[in-house]
Amino acid sequence: GIIAVSWLSTDIDCETILASEDGTFTVLVDPGDLLGGVYEGIIVVNSNDPVNPAYEIPIVLTVVGVPAISIDGISADNPLDFGTVLVGLNSDQTITITNPGTDFLIIDEFVFDDPQFSINAEDTELAPGESITLTIVYSPDGVNDTEGTLTISNNVEDITVNLIGAGQEAAIGSVNPEALEFTLLSGQEGSQSITL
Question: Does the structure show a pLDDT above 80 at 195?
Answer without folding.
Answer: no
